[in-house]
Amino acid sequence: MKSPLFVVFVLSAFAASGQGSLFSADWFGRISGKESNPIDCVGCTLVVSIVEQLSIIHDTAIDKVLDEFCGYFPAEFQTVCVYFVNTYGDEIIKRALAGEGPDDVCHGMGFCKSFPTCRLYNGTTPPLLTQAKSFHQLRSAPRVTVFSPSKAAAAKLKMQPLGETPWQWIMNLINRFANQHEPIEDLDGDYYSVQEYFRGSHWRGKDCDDFDKHIHAGRAVSEYGPTVDHNCNGIAGIDNSTSKAWEDELCGSSSALGTIVIGDSGGAHFEIPPSWLNASEINKETYKDLLTVLENEFDLPELSGYTGFITNTTKYSHSVYQYMRQRNLCNHRDYQNCGVNGARSGAMKDLITDIARDQTLDKPVLLFYELIGNDVCAGNDLNSMTTVAEFTANVLQSLQYFEQHLPAGSHIVFVGLAPGELLWDLLNNRTHPIGVKYVEVYNYLNCLDISPCWEWMNSDPSVRAAGTQRAHELSAVYPQLIANYSSVFKNFDMAYIDFPMAEVIAAWTAQGGEAWQLIEPVDGFHPNQIAHSLMADAYWNFLLTNHSDFVGPVNPNNAQIAQLFGNQGGY
To answer: Which of 203, 346, 384, 449 has its CB surrounded by the most CB atoms within 10 Å?
Structure first.
């Protein structure tokens, strides 16, 4: 039952899966043709669970909950929801009235027929509201036999209307994001956009002229006069007292640098709002941002510890880019987040081409190369993990590309793989937002062979230990490459830092927090917003202490820039 809630959780929960990236066309193609695929099973189980819990919490007949359910979603998704409620609603009601829990309903309806032993609740199904008098008659709404999203919805989603099935419509929406990690609206083809989502300004500094590919963040060389803000940092015009361009006076010798992260969902800042799966928090406002979340691929690059620029939502919103900007206001808007959910080292040869940097015309960069887990979380057996030889070759290929494309004077910081075994230690006995222990969620996803990380989300300690050992071995590749190739590459230097989870936990517990609070609660896998902010602090302290040349000097003109140009055009 591929409902909007199915889109919300099932597709997003596996963003970092070893099965493939979220919105990966080959992954969806591989599972969608099966008689009973695991995504159907999970989607059905979660939807029925939420509907039954809503019925209990609000003391409302389940048929009424189903009738109202579609109103919780944005208009663009309500047609999809109505189709599924009309198609499957009566069967769900009948089975719920018979006392069946979510697992029983979905197995009985055939969504899990290929997985007879896989059960999320595993005997712990929440009590159902089974009194017959609390339910109305079975619904008699007319069934929808032809599905067609509205033209308005299709236009907003920037896709063609489909008069076929909702699954095909959803697949078309998903495939829109599958392998296209460039701005959907970029009139001049410079990879920068005036739109926020669809790989726009949440991912790269906002374009200040989308009709000229020579005007964008990070540009160093310009053919234009001083009145044109050729690098979009908000500094333009002439100092009348000297007749010189403000850009030259305030930024010319400031050693400005861009900030880039290339890697996986850890860098992109993957997040699923916990309220989306917690029935006690679901209301008509819960899913209002569903479309924009999809447009950003379930990521929050604007709040990432690497490239985040939004500071007014929480005190935990630090980023390396913000530190770089504070150090030199000429760095304004010069950030790029090229993180892709599910990325592993073998895919980097394709992803690195999404970096927008001209070797001769743009400023140097501080680039973070982070792959925190997918080379370990690569499938459902230990042989699927990336080998040391493969990882070495993949990273070296990236470095060779960087040598040909990054401006001279750039810096690369390798981030080690995360201590993934910690996930089990911190969460396995805690309660997931869906209402069961994390160990039950882990076992369920492993049974269906769709776990984000079979190696670390595994009840077998020997499997978890093997994953951690491989992570250590792969992380050790970086220092070795630095030792062997520092004299070979001329356009950048390199440094390595362990994934700073130990420092992050120490900082958080010193403030009275607990370590488990640093993990995204829905997927139980990614660093959350607090962790991202504390990671930025750890990276920044590391750079200032060990590689101060990587961040450039403090610009003595910062106060004057702020006085003359205010917020420099914002974001």
So the answer is: 203
